[in-house]
Structures are given as structure tokens and as C-alpha cells.
Amino acid sequence: MIPATLRVTLIVAVICYFVIILYFLKQKALNLKYTLLWLVAGLVMGTLVVVPELLVKIIHIFGIQENMNGLFIFAIGFMLMILLSLTSIASRQNRKIRTLTQELAILDKRVRELEKRETGL
Amino acid sequence: MEQKQRVLVIIPAYNESENIVHVVRHMMEEAPQYDYLVINDGSTDDTPDLCRRENFHYLDLSINMGIGGAVQAGYVYARKYDYDIAVQMDGDGQHDIAYLEKLLEPIVNREADVVIGSRFLEKEGFQSTFGRRMGINILSGLIWLVTGRHIMDVTSGYRAVNKMFIKIYSEDYPMDYPEPEAIVAAIMHLGRVKEVPVQMRAREGGISSITFKKSIYYMIKVTLAILICRMGYGIRRGKREDI
Question: Fewer Cβ neighbours under 10 Å: the N or C end of chain B?
Fold first, then answer.
């Protein structure tokens, strides 16, 4: 089982993690919408630190023998999910920027024409 | 003939300071009855300055979006100002304005929704290099495979579309290397795609956007894009209501 000192370290780490997220949220450096996944990750980590037996049980359900291997597989899987969602967010923003740039260019042309008409009068 | 249709010639230009003035002036001389719109795609040379000095009609995209985003800006403009037909013509002088009428004819006569100016129908004029022709043939075959339609010059950027496709393309136009993908989208929207023979010239100046090094990436990217585009429409065996 996990030694007591390691458990304390991990608990402190999880608390730090939450403090950082909440700090970012307070500074409005993170959208709540995109933070939910990170908060869920924190909750899962917290639960596993407090009740490590849970991890062992879950890992065995999936047929993984080594506890540490299981932990890494879950962690990597979770990060892949987050990266995928980030790529999707970037793509969506790309699309929005495209629309804005196009609309801006059309407006810019309209303004130029109006200015020309005004100075022409 | 019915009432006169309003035509907008979209001329995307990225760092085309060597060609753009000549291309637009030529267009104004040969086809003054049609409106044109240069799209400066965030050029880093003096393309926008030339447009301003020459008093051209132009859109100034503040960031470089690639040919797809630039052309789409033209379609958005055409839709906003209610044009009946939009034509895409490269800003590098490859496309000859003399063929504009041939390109417009099938649309004016309501025989087609999308008309592509094809180098390979009569095999005249600049035929591109052997390697590129092979690549184009492969993509042409792929498009035939996924849509059942034979289009020869799938990478030609000299095209005309009617009002229906101005709307479709203004809402959704492929990015990066959009030409072959746009054909698949047109066919899947049950558009009548027609090729007309045109002659193209080798570029008059500047450099082509597709270097030899990029061609492998180009083929992979476009193949994937065609397959994904085709998948996006699922099985489609419908009839259009308006024809």
C-alpha cells in the first residue's frame, strides 16, 4: 500500500492543483466551460489519493495486473482526451476567426467606398 | 435571354504584386461589363498598396487565410451583394479572361451549377508538368471513385458557380487546398458540374504556391480531404427539387 508520507505529499499536490485552477478561474484566465474537465480530473485524483484501494479494484476490472501501469494508462488516456478537446476548440476558433476576418474585410471595403463618396461630394 | 445576370469575378491574390495590376487591368479592358473583386489574402508584399493606388475593387484580409479562406470571402461578398454568378480566377495571370464567356455560358443557360475551366479537355495551352498531371489524374480518379463523376481538371481554380453555390460555398468552403474538395462538395450537393475547355498559361511571374517538396503532402492531404468530405454526406441518392 502507499506509504503515509507519499500520501501526504500527494494530497498536498492535489490541493495545490485545485488552488491553481481556482486562482486561474478567479483571474478569468480560464473559462469555466473549459475548466470542468480539469476539475473532474482533480476530483478523480483526490478520490484516488484518499481511497487508493479503489484504483486497484478499477484496474483489475480492466484486466491490468500492475497498479502503476494501470495508473499511467488512465493518466495518458485522460490527457489524450483533453488534448483532443483542445484541438477541437482550436479548430472551432479558427473557423470563427475566419468568419470575422472575412466580415471585417467586407466592412473595410464598404467604409472605403463611403469615405470616397464623402470626400467626392 | 432573360434579364441580365450580375457576375462577380473573384480574384484571390497572395503576394502577387508582379501580376495583379496586369491581370485586373486586362480584365477591365476585356470584360468591363462584369464586376470584379480582388481578395488580398494578407499579402506581405505591396499587393494591397498596388490595389489602393490603382483604385481597384478589393477586399483586404487582415490575416493570411490561404486560398480557401480568400475565395470564401469572395463568395460571402457575392452573397451579401446578391450576385447571380461568381467566377474564381487566379491573380497570377494563369487564367485567360478570354474564356470567361465560355465559363459563364452553361450557367446563364441553366445547364450547369458549377463550371470548371479545364486544361485537359482539348489539351491545348500550358499542360503543367508530367508529375502534376499524374497527381491530378490520381485525384480525378479518386473523385470518380467516390462520386461516380468524371472530372478531368480537378485542381483548376478557374470556375464559375451560380447563385445556389454562391450560398453553399459562402457557408462552407474547404480550406488549404480546396479545389478538388469543392468539386466533391458540389456533386454531393447534387450540383450539375460541367467542364469547359480552356487554355491556361504558365505563371507570368512570382512563384506557384505548390512546390515540388510540398506535392507529397498535397496528395496525402487532398486524398484524405476528399474521403472525409465524401463521408460527411453519407449515402445520397436524391433528386433536387428545383430542376
Answer: N
